[in-house]
# Entry
Amino acid sequence: MSSDRSQKPDERFRFDEDGGPEPEKTCGHDRGGMGEDVRRKEDRRFVTGEGTYVDDIKKDGMLHCEIVRSPHGHARVVDIDGSRAESMDDVVAVITAEDLAAHDLATMPTLMDDTQEVLVREKVKFQSQEVAAVIATDRYAAKDGAERVEVEYDTLDAVVDAADAKAEDAPIVREDLEEDTNHIFTWEAGDEEATEQAFADADVTVEQDMYYQRLHPAPIETCGCVADWDEDDEQMTVHMTSQAPHAHRTLFSMVSGIPEHKVRIVSPDVGGGFGNKVPIYPGYVVAAAASYVLEQPVKWVEERSENVQTTSFARDYDMTGRIAATEDGEILGIDTEVLANHGAYNAAAQPSKFPAGFFKIFTGSYDVPAAHASLDAYYTNTAPGGIAYRCSFRVTEAVYLVERLVKALAQELDADPAEIRRQNFIPEDAFPYESATGWEYDSGNYERALDKALESVDYDGLREEQAERIENDDDTLLGIGLSTFTEIVGAGPGKQCDIAGVEMFDSCEIRVHPTGTATVRIGVQTQGQGHETTFAQIVAEELGLDVDSVEVEHGDTDTEPYGLGTYASRSTPVGGAATAVAARKVREKAKSVAANELEADEEDVVWSRESGAFSIEGAPERTVTIEEVAAASYMNSPADEEPGLEAVDYYDPPNMTYPFGAYVCVVEVDRETGEVDIRQFYALDDCGNRINPMIIEGQVHGGVAQGIGTAMLEHVTYDDDGNVTAGDFMNYLLPTAMEIPEMETDYTVTPSPHHPIGAKGVGESPTVGSPPAIVNAVVDAMAHAGVRHVDMPMTADRVWEVLDDAGLSKEPSERFDFDAGADDEAAADDD
Ligand code: MCN
Ligand code: CUM
# Structure
């Protein structure tokens, strides 16, 4: 364990006093260290089709697993008859809950304090829930077999909304639990009394209902695994789509009783996770159980609709927000009530000390003296809530709430939304800042970010254009939406965010080999974020190695040091910190070896970041490079040092990191159709010191695309009987290149004062920060007619209703007179 938990960033990581941007490179050399746009090392294998995903893994004698799923949302299982399937030539086995129970595998833990049936025993609780499984010699036979499993159901009334689940006479989803209610928990944060007082003292108060709809993370690769039990070695190897291989290994061992050192989880290349691959799903358990019993490898891979309908949905928060202020626009308090739909199992992957995750961040970037939230969560007949979807555990909902409330307040006061923000920002000199709900923000400079954003988009010019359009009664309205959000990422310090009761550390092991190349093994796991490149850059920077000499390995529990995985944008804040500290440990040892080589006292030896080499202080002409040190460490180590050059660090961070951003979205709203065109999207992100600006830009592009999907298109819907009505990509609409505008990315740099390299996470910021900017823009376009809110997704019909209610809609013009066009064409044909 590293002894110093909060290593101070060194000189070059200090705040830049004049507030200007950092130089393009922070390292001043071109070994591929910090701040360089190093091309992604992993991309060669991806673009040449050489990646290895779970479904690419084939083993001798491998069997295939297909899950039989319930067509009903709520139903009792009367009978399961697998005989027709079993009689098929290629079908090896039909598995039911009874079979699993015989091996003590009937249930599995969710990531919260709940257990989920692997296969349904008595009652189906959501549509497409796992009822039985068929194991066959190939995938097609398994599918045919699954279709021949006959299940008799007795259907029950379903409840799909949290509001309905609350009703006294609502169907009870969880009869297996003691209490006769759908209510899961009540959660509160902040000071209710102080908040009530703030509202009593206020000149103005604004209340806004808003529903953050149910979303699906939708990674391009669905979930799956290949489980392989080796009877001779008594070893279980599972290749699986996992964002947290070690955590999954521990769970696997606990559930199966197989000793942990005999369980190996390998997460190979992963085609996107976005939170979807944090939880454990029944398919993994069934495949492993089948492999154990049949002593053959078993593969299970979901289809798209299975992924959308059954794995970790997100959001589904029904919020009422209230904001109180003085007539001059000074925010006095925020109060919030939430109704949360958690689906059929409380599977929410979120910090156990905070059943509502990090929702407490709902005071955002603003100095809000009094805040309070109360929340009630309910079971419903819908898929279990994963909650983790590029969000850090309810941060997304919290940011949406506060950014929408600030916009509503500006409207109430007839003030400029940019000015209301500026007026209420936590000032630059107030950090570390303790929020009314108890977080300690590490650093921030929100005003600098806002100023840069407004200037970059020519905010004043846009406001003029907006006014002109209103003046001219234009067919399209212009809307300008802002989001000046703060994030909270890097799960995280034990005291603040223990998930499932564990310290939230992460790890790195570095081995520098005699010829001066290095193998770096990390506990976090990449799903597309580029860790093989950025973690190599950290080591290159800290040791003076060339980035190409550093190979990063991850995702194999047999070789990597124990880590807790990738989510909550924690890889850089926690795993990146472990990597920097491990490299510094190596450097310490290297210094002693260098002293021996230079025949000097260790105290007289210095290391230069510029040259990446050691020399005697005051005599820079004689140097020893890290490559020379590496050779000497093995071949000629000092008498008082062990041979070798390696180090491990388990880093337990002292605090979360608080990246932030200033986003501007410009929309045009068509008054005839309600169609919204995102004309411009500007995203300024501040994630402290940047390791690889190009990778950050890619993260922002992808994250904003997901934010556009959220704001404009996506919603997992159910009918009253519990049928998923948007359970595939025909109905659950992801944005394509057609819907994504050209984006501008920008940055400021406000380092984290407690992170060894001053970096904060960034992976989730764009998905968290962009939806309110887009909704604020659409509302802004109609604000002059008194429009206060449009719920997401802002489809054309929904926007048109709002336009029409506000008296802003226009009769369709000639371009919609199709008959006229037909006449013209007919006339043309006559000619
Ligand atoms: N980075 C950097 N400098 C910084 C911060 C980050 O260069 N100051 C780089 C990192 O080194 C890393 C990438 O940006 O290569 C993202 O880093 P970080 O913010 O630490 O986030 P994680 O690596 O922990 O990734 C998790 C985050 C989450 S929680 C979701 S959800 C998400 C996301 O990242 N899922 C993704 N981005 C994704 N991107 C892809 N392609 N696929 C996913 O599944
Ligand atoms: Cu909140 S989704 Mo990501 O944390 O895997």
User: Anything to note?
Assistant: The domain at 43-52+505-651 is CATH 3.30.365.10 (Aldehyde Oxidoreductase; domain 4). The two ends are 86 Å apart (CA to CA).
